[in-house]
Amino acid sequence: MAITRCPNGHFYDPETNDSCPWCAVPAGNFDGTRRAFPETAAVPDPGATVKINPQNQPKGAPGQSAIDEGHTVAVFKKKTGIDPVVGWLVCIDGPDRGRDYRIRSEKNVVGRSDTMDICIRGDETISRSDHAFIVHDPKKNVFRIQAGLSRGLIYLNGEEVIASEKLNAYDRIEMGESTFLFVPFCGENFQWETKKDS
Predict the structure, then answer these.
(1) C-alpha angle with apex 149: 142 to 75, nearest 5 degrees?
(2) Quick one: CA dihedral 112, 113, 114, 118, positive or negative?
(3) Are the beta carbons of 135 and 145 closer than 8 angstroms?
(4) Which of 131, 155, 167, 191 has the smallest set of CB atoms within 10 Å of its CB?
(5) Domains along the chain?
(6) Measured between alpha carbons, how far is 82 from 68 in angstroms, rounded to an integer?
């Protein structure tokens, strides 16, 4: 695999891209072509088995505790022992029309990235991260929507969300080129109970 450097200093593979995918500068050996690796790697035998030393096994691997030491656990999840669904966003218009997105207790971050709590991949006009926050307050059993940290705007029933607004059943939420209906599961008829101490 040959790697080429564009005039702006970006590296890319000219066999895969006709021009720099970062700045669209046409292919050319600005600073010469370099190999990414000096030698060709050997292809492993597909039938070979690999023995993993238990000390080198990733955390959460089979036989180990699944607790992620650096991961924050929601208060509700810690009290109940579960992270249950408390509602849904249902896309009624846009690239992901017909798809539903689960809302969990406490703060849910909305964006296109897989790291978001609510990942809306199909609409590229929704920010990759922090486009909006959907919040379920388990103490008051209410839902709110908050403007995110990104550039994109959010509309609740046609009105721009500037700070934080209460969500009611079947409210319309517009983000990017998509429209969603808010469908609560928890409310006056049902609420998850915390587990009892024995």
Answers:
(1) 40
(2) negative
(3) yes
(4) 191
(5) 1-30 (no CATH), 75-184 (2.60.200.20)
(6) 16
Amino acid at 40: T
Distance in angstroms (rounded) separating the CA atoms of residues 185 and 90:
13
Phi, psi of 132 (to 5 degrees): -155, 165
Spatial CB neighbours of 72, under 8 Å, sequence gap ≥ 6: none
pLDDT per residue as tens digits for the range 152-196: 999 999 999 998 999 999 999 999 999 999 999 988 888 888 665
Classify residue 16 as exposed, middle or buried by CB count within 10 Å of its CB (0-12, 13-18, 19+).
exposed
What count of residues does the chain have? Answer: 198
DSSP H helical ranges for 22-166: 75-80
Q: Is the dihedral of CA 73, 77, 83, 86 positive or negative?
A: negative
Query: Hunting for tokens 């702006």 — which residue is that?
Result: 8
User: For residue 124, what are the CA distances in angstroms to 95, 127, 129, 173, 189?
Assistant: 9, 7, 11, 17, 37
Average pLDDT over residues 121-138: 95
